[in-house]
Amino acid sequence: MSTSPTRIPTDAKVVLVTGASSGIGEATARHLAEQGHHVVLAARRRDRLAQVVGDLTEAGHSAEHEELDVTDRGNVQDVVSRLVARHGRIDVLVNNAGVMPLSPVAALRLDEWDRMIDVNLRGVLHGVAAVLPAMRERRCGHIVNVASTAAHRVDPTAAVYCATKFAVRAFSEGLRQENTDLRVPVISPGFTRSELADRGGDPQVQGAVRAATEQIGLPASAIAEAIGYAIGQAPGIDVNEIVVRPTAQN
Ligand SMILES: NC(=O)c1ccc[n+]([C@@H]2O[C@H](COP(=O)([O-])OP(=O)(O)OC[C@H]3O[C@@H](n4cnc5c(N)ncnc54)[C@H](OP(=O)(O)O)[C@@H]3O)[C@@H](O)[C@H]2O)c1
Fold first, then answer.
1. What region holds the Ketoreductase domain (predicted)?
2. Per-residue model confidence (pLDDT) at position 11
């Protein structure tokens, strides 16, 4: 489902943001639309997407939405094919959708482990597989992968989450090396205000994450601006890695 886009200026990028119904994805979609790009907001919660698209189009920006489950390979490919048919290209894919139900390994919450692997890692692979052939053919494009400070260090209760984020970072480096015409920024946020700790995981652990985020968390707009910086560089300049932490985060 999509809202009809307004005409896209030729110098604007067509940007697909996954996980755009809240938090960092929503802030990124808002920021990039305000910068003049055409933004496609994708996630499962259509009502939330429609609300943000309504705000943006009312303010004169160019945006539409697509219902998307990144764990469904066919769904990702269909959405990308539809967008390429509609706009002729996707210039930027922001692989942002993610989940973080934290718990100690010994709790053996296997369904949540699978969920993290499916959304945080497989979801990224599905997005890349869907956009890569056309980007390689056009010999340009940005694939922005949202990792985490959890892609740089491991802490108790975050073993599986960190494993998925380390994997996204490793995969991004391989993707970058193999595709010299493409740009593959990895953006690693620290504590950022969003809905990330609201679903699943050990209630005590998630409560502690929420408390820390409330105390020191960055606004999601700080991460959106880092993504805007990464995709705003002149051709040939690939911002490989940005880590954005609150000053108070250890
Ligand atoms: N907040 C932080 O402190 C922090 C720190 C480091 C890294 N990150 C990373 O930042 C990214 C965004 O998270 P956030 O903090 O903004 O949390 P959030 O507010 O919970 O946003 C997560 C987004 O992912 C989407 N999503 C979840 N499962 C999905 C699926 N199967 N298919 C499509 N979309 C799905 C959600 O939308 P629907 O539920 O509508 O599908 C939502 O829009 C994640 O990759 C997260 O790991 C966050």
1. 13-194
2. 77
Question: Among 161, 166, 171, 191, which one carries the catalytic annotation?
Answer: 161
| Calpha distance 85→100 (Å, rounded) | 34
62 lines ligand 1 (CB under 6 A): no
pLDDT digits (tens, 9 = 90+) for 58-76: 999 999 999 999 999 999 9
CA-CA distance, 199 to 10, in Å (whole number)?
40
User: From the CB of 64, is ligand 1 less than 6 Å away?
Assistant: no
CA distance 235 to 140: 9
Does residue 99 line the site of ligand 1, with CB under 6 A?
Answer: yes
For the stretch 163-173, pLDDT in tens is 999 999 999 99
Which CATH class name applies to 14-244? Answer: alpha beta
Tens-place pLDDT, residues 37-63 = 999 999 999 999 999 999 999 999 999
Longest dimension (CA), the chain: 53
Separation of 195 CA from ligand 1 center, angstroms? Answer: 7
**Residue of minimum CA distance from atom 42 in ligand 1:** 19
- Reduced to 3 states (helix: H, G, I; strand: E, B; else coil), residue 135 is helix
229 is known as an active-site residue = no
